[in-house]
């Protein structure tokens, strides 16, 4: 289900071109398994007019297929287009690039930063995940949130939990008059002793995805070196980062020394939070533009991708297993 946030914007662009799409799925036994969320999948299929089919054997057609990090490539004969998923490509790209026709990166900087080989198969067309309309009032109603100043905490990995006292973080935010929201992944939920102090969410919605919706209606995001920084930049939301990972954050190049980003290192002095938040109050949407222009991409990636493929209106666009 996680991959639907990439596929549905492409499906919607295909619908505008009279292209019928099919999403192929298979069980994954994970928290995001389509079988666990099948009613949700059927609802999305109806809303966005795509077919859904369980994949068991090789698909006998020559249609264009979109993949995430080449997952499921062995089932399809036609042209295969792989989209990158955050930074997962770092460990898999060299193996799968020979098995696909094109690999779509957000920006050429991602190739250079992670020292991947240049190839005529590499395309720098952005990410369809961000081709989504996020309406504030609709989101507030959807999640039953007050129209007040909000801070979203992106819940850290269990590995790093002992390095940060989230109760203290929440207390400091409440002193600054924030409504505190918490977003955790289904596979690493937040302990109830912490979550009950916030408006707590996991993966409530697959498209638009819960994380993006909550970031979009928040005034500040608390991050802990996660790749969620990319979503914050694209949605032009300031970030207070607690540097608690045991290694350099993979997307640190998007935020280091940027005006929209403040940081507190370990050992954490929670008394610094007010100073950092006060600094971030003065950030404007314009402060994100240079990073978006140079390191990320402009809107309408789905249109750029389908334009590149030059799909005639009578062609069919097939989207593969979102759960592999």
Can you walk me through this structure?
The N and C termini lie close together (9 Å). The C terminus is likely disordered. Helix 1 packs across helix 12. This protein is α/β, with parallel strands linked by helices and 324 residues long. A 7-stranded parallel beta sheet has the order 2-1-13-3-4-5-6. Strands 9-8-7-10-11-12 form a 6-stranded parallel beta sheet, with helices on both faces. Helix content is 30%, strand content 17%.
Report a brief summary of the structure.
The protein is α/β, with parallel strands linked by helices. The protein has twelve helices and 13 strands.
Strand content: 15-25%
Category from helices, strands and their pairing: alpha/beta
Oligomer category: single chain
Beta strand count = 13
Helix content: 25-40%
Unreliable segments (pLDDT under 50, ≥5 consecutive)?
Answer: 314-324
SS field, number of helical segments = 12
Kindly report the spatial arrangement of strands forming the biggest sheet. Answer: 2-1-13-3-4-5-6
Q: What is the first-to-last residue Cα distance?
A: 9 Å
* SSE pattern, N- to C-terminal: HEHEEEHEHEHEHEHEHEHEEHHHE
Tell me the radius of gyration: 20 Å
Q: Let me know the average pLDDT.
A: 93
Describe this protein with a few key phrases:
6-stranded parallel beta sheet, 7-stranded parallel beta sheet, 324 residues, alpha/beta, disordered C terminus
In terms of topology, how is this protein built?
Layout: H1 4-16, E1 21-25, H2 38-48, E2 51-54, E3 64-68, E4 80-83, H3 89-96, E5 102-105, H4 108-113, E6 122-124, H5 136-142, E7 150-154, H6 166-175, E8 179-183, H7 192-195, E9 199-201, H8 210-216, E10 220-223, H9 229-234, E11 239-243, E12 261-265, H10 273-280, H11 289-295, H12 301-309, E13 317-319
Parallel strand pairs: 1-2, 1-13, 3-4, 3-13, 4-5, 5-6, 7-8, 7-10, 8-9, 10-11, 11-12
């Amino acid at each position: 289900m996680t991959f639907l946030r990439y596929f549905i914007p492409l499906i919607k662009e295909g619908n505008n071109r009279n292209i019928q799409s099919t999403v192929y799925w298979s069980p994954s036994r994970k928290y995001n398994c389509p079988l666990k969320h099948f009613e949700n999948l059927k609802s999305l299929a109806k809303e966005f007019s795509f077919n859904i089919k369980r994949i068991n054997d090789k698909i006998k057609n020559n249609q264009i297929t979109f993949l995430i990090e080449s997952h499921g490539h062995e089932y399809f004969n036609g042209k295969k287009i792989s989209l990158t998923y955050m930074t997962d490509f770092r460990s898999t790209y060299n193996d799968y690039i020979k098995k696909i026709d094109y690999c779509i990166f957000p920006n050429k900087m991602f190739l250079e930063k992670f020292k991947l080989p240049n190839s005529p198969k590499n395309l720098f067309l952005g990410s369809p995940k961000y081709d989504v309309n996020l309406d504030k009032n609709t989101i507030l109603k959807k999640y039953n949130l007050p129209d007040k100043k909000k801070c979203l905490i992106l819940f850290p990995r269990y590995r790093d939990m002992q390095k940060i006292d989230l109760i203290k973080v929440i207390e400091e935010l409440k002193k600054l008059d924030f409504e505190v929201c918490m977003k955790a992944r289904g596979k690493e939920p937040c302990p109830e002793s912490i979550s009950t102090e916030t408006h707590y969410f996991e993966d409530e919605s697959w498209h638009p995805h819960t994380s993006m919706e909550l970031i979009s209606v928040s005034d500040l995001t608390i991050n802990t070196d996660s790749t969620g920084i990319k979503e914050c930049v694209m949605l032009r939301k300031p970030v207070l980062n607690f540097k608690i990972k045991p290694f350099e954050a993979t997307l640190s190049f998007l935020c280091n020394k940027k005006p929209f980003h403040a940081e507190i290192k370990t050992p954490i002095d929670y008394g610094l939070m007010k100073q950092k938040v006060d600094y971030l109050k003065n950030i404007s949407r314009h402060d994100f533009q240079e990073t978006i222009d140079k390191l990320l991409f402009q809107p309408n990636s789905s249109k750029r991708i389908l334009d590149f493929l030059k799909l005639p209106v009578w062609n069919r666009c097939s989207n593969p297993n979102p759960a592999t």
